[in-house]
Design goal:
The complex is a heterodimer. Chain A is of the alpha/beta class. Chain A has 10 helices and 12 strands. Chain A has a 6-stranded mixed sheet with strand order 6-9-10-3-11-12, with helices on both faces. A 4-stranded antiparallel sheet of chain A has the order 2-1-4-5. In chain A, helix 6 (154-168) runs parallel beside helix 7 (184-197). Chain A is globular and about 60 Å long. By secondary structure, chain B is of the alpha/beta class. Chain B has one domain. In chain B, strands 2-1-5-7-9-11-13-15-17-19 form a 10-stranded mixed sheet. Chain B has a 9-stranded mixed sheet with strand order 3-4-6-8-10-12-14-16-18. The chains are: A alpha/beta, B alpha/beta. Chain A: Keywords: ATP-binding, Nucleotide-binding.
Chain lengths: 272, 430
């Protein structure tokens, strides 16, 4: 079993032009083990994507306090590629498009990155695995020969993220709004791919706005994030509860002093 | 006038260049060109100063080595024509093609067996011998090359592959001239592979003329990899008659300093060219590449795409020249020149130049000199690729546009290997 542990994590982003720094995460604590499925829910602008990008090691985000540890080893000094090789994977909201590199050669390079230099995966084994996963995700064979994400629709990009996940087989996967922009059918396909990965050696952290995704990938734990912190943790019923109350309801119940971005819109009180 | 290099006018140079049993027209051409060398200017490559290069340091006693080295022998299977310096290592054209009148031979054989045919095209339509000092030198001192003639209405499906090796196992002059003639409505693909054997420093002068007669379609690709000690002048030009088309895909992968001129003259109405070039400059290398399309014909169309990568302290300049002559109504000229800098100490330049002398035309350009896209780098690294590996992949993708147009799988993979090698080792030592 592997453990990913986030303790008292504070993260800031710097605006290069304005030369100002803004704290986004204000003390996040989270522990997850392989074999578990976690979901983080929360309103817009509360730091969910910041958390996932920071765990992965996006240099855009600065950790000012706290730690991120994988099996007791801090990841903070490690670059994004080292974290990936240590077993982390982030399915991104906005994957980059790269012309001139085929999906297939990229995935082979990624699969080989975690293997010893003198033991790359054989072409035959790779293709067999690829075909199997393409079928699970209802993706056509020509996806492999197309340039990496180039000209892919929103739905194709999400599927492609999950395809990479299935090929690379990390210890922990963070799925950052994998449900956004997907219709119900595509959502089911993507969920099927993630569910196939489930094993005692694999953990998932889903970031989402909606309870809907959790109907297809069942979480063991649901965390609610507001104002840069995890404010409540519960089982799958917490998501249903949230759907009924809304984030503002939960905030008031917990007596938190947090501004929600869309609050004024729903109450019609005008701008701040 | 700028400080320019001069050729030591040693008559032995002219004598030694002569091929056996030359026809009168060729001797006359040599003599005329020889006399003009001293007065003609050097060609201009904007933003490149090459006047101190030993481009004209010819050997007064050019030695011919008749053995074909193993490194060339092992490649022969992929080519229908191969030469090492002045020595022909292979000519093997399909009998079926020969029956259709296709001619493939070395220049020496061409002037002996097809003198009149060659005389019609050699320095006649595409390139003029007296354009500048380097064209005159080629005309005066040419000592090798190939001749490919595809008669009217003949279609060749398999690519015709030429391997031309500069022999630098000793001091030898390499003044090469390849003539390709596409008869009316013919269609074929041709590949020119240029490289160096040996360690001696010799200049390389290589020229290709493609004459595309009405309605013909030539797909020409080239991969150049002259050695580090070779200073190279490369000139390739197409002459296009009505509705003719030439697609160029050229990989400039030389290890030494290079000036290259790739031109298409769209003389015929409705003629069309696509000119794609990729290049990498590494270490201390300087390369200047001019690609020019000149629209003379009505509704002629020319598109230029140049992409290059710089490492180390190298320099790479792309000049893209789109010239529309008065009377070329409805002409189109587009170009895109992009340079990717992988080193802060390198000097890259992408200059689009449009010279337009007609009104109802469409012309445009895009140019950029940039660093690697950080979002792309982050994405690749987030899948476990090291920064170096990710950079190489992004860089290879950047050049990948030309790869798919090279018809021979083996040459394609040679180009990929060369790109990989240059990206891995090209930053040089401080």
């Amino acid at each position: 079993m592997a453990t990913l542990k986030v303790t008292d994590l504070h993260v800031s982003v710097t605006d290069e032009e304005a030369k100002t720094s803004k704290e986004i995460l204000k003390g996040v604590n989270l522990t997850m083990n392989t074999g578990e499925t976690h979901a983080i829910m929360g309103p817009n602008g509360t730091g969910k994507s910041t958390l996932s990008e920071t765990i992965m090691g996006n240099p855009h985000y600065q950790v000012t306090q706290g730690n991120i540890m994988l099996d007791g080893v801090s990841l903070l000094g490690k670059t994004v590629d080292a974290r990936a090789r240590a077993g982390l994977f982030l399915a991104m909201q906005y994957p980059a498009e790269i012309k001139g590199i085929t999906n297939m050669e990229f995935m082979r390079a990624a699969v080989n990155a975690t293997r010893p230099a003198d033991d790359p995966i054989s072409v035959r084994a790779f293709l067999k695995e690829l075909d199997k996963n393409l079928e699970v995700l209802n993706m056509s064979d020509d996806m492999a020969e197309r340039y990496l994400n180039e000209g892919f629709s929103g739905g194709e990009k999400k599927r492609n993220e999950i395809l990479q996940l299935m090929m690379i087989k990390p210890k922990f996967a963070i799925l950052d709004e994998i449900d956004s922009g997907l219709d119900i059918d595509a959502l089911q396909v993507v969920a099927k791919g993630v569910n196939q990965m489930q094993s005692p050696d694999f953990g998932v952290l889903m970031i989402t706005h909606y309870q809907r995704l959790l109907n297809y990938i069942h979480p063991d734990q649901v965390h609610v994030m507001m104002g840069g912190r995890i404010v409540k943790t519960g089982d799958a019923t917490l998501a249903t509860e949230l759907e009924a109350k809304g984030y503002a309801g939960l905030r008031d119940e917990l007596g938190l002093d947090v501004d929600l971005v869309d609050e004024d819109v729903t109450t019609g009180n005008g701008g701040r | 006038m700028v400080k320019s290099m001069t050729l030591t006018m040693n008559p032995a140079l002219l004598e030694n260049a002569k091929l056996a049993n030359e026809p009168r027209w060729l001797s006359d051409l040599r003599q005329q060109a020889w006399q003009k060398i001293a007065t003609l200017p050097m060609p201009i490559f904007a933003k490149i100063n090459y006047h101190h290069w030993p481009l004209l340091d010819f050997a007064s006693e050019s030695v011919v080595n008749v053995t074909v080295p193993e490194s060339v022998q092992s490649q022969l299977a992929s080519y229908q024509f191969a030469s090492v310096g002045q020595v022909v290592a292979k000519i093997a054209l399909d009998e079926d093609l020969m029956a259709k009148g296709v001619i493939l031979c070395d220049l020496q054989t061409a002037i002996r067996q097809h003198s009149d045919l060659v005389a019609n095209y050699f320095f006649k339509q595409a390139i003029q011998f007296d354009e500048n000092r380097l064209t005159a030198i080629n005309a005066a001192l040419v000592n090798g090359g190939a001749f490919l003639y595809v008669p009217a209405n003949v279609e060749v499906t398999e690519p015709i592959n030429l391997l031309q090796v500069q022999d630098s196992r000793q001091s030898t002059n390499f003044v090469n001239h390849t003539l390709i003639v596409a008869g009316a409505n013919s269609r074929f693909k041709v590949l020119q592979r240029s490289q160096t054997v040996g360690e001696v420093a010799n200049p390389a002068h290589t020229m290709v003329e493609i004459v595309a007669e009405a309605g013909s379609y030539v797909k020409f690709s080239a991969l150049d990899s002259f050695a580090k000690q070779t200073h190279a002048y490369i000139n390739r030009r197409g002459y296009l008659a009505n509705d003719a088309r030439i697609d160029w895909a050229v990989g400039v992968m030389n290890d030494g300093n290079t000036i290259a001129d790739f031109d298409s003259n769209l003389v015929g109405n409705g003629s069309h060219t696509e000119m794609q070039t990729v290049a990498i400059s590494t270490d201390q290398q300087t390369q200047g590449i001019d690609t020019q399309v000149t629209n003379y014909g009505r509704h002629s169309e020319g598109n230029i795409l140049q992409r290059g990568i710089l490492l180390g302290k190298s320099a790479l300049v792309f000049n893209g020249i789109g010239k529309i002559i008065k009377g070329a109504h409805g002409a189109k000229a587009q170009q895109e020149n992009r340079v990717l800098m992988l080193s802060p100490k390198a000097r890259g330049d992408a200059n689009p130049i449009l010279l337009i002398d007609e009104n109802d035309v469409i012309a445009g350009h895009a140019a950029s000199v940039g660093r690697i896209n950080q979002d792309q780098l982050y994405y690749l690294m987030s899948r476990g690729l090291t920064k170096e590996m990710a950079q190489r992949l992004v860089a290879r993708g950047f050049l990948g546009v030309v790869l798919r147009d090279i018809p021979v799988a083996e040459v394609r993979s040679q180009l990929v290997d060369m790109i990989e090698r240059k990206l891995a080792n090209g930053q040089g030592t401080e």
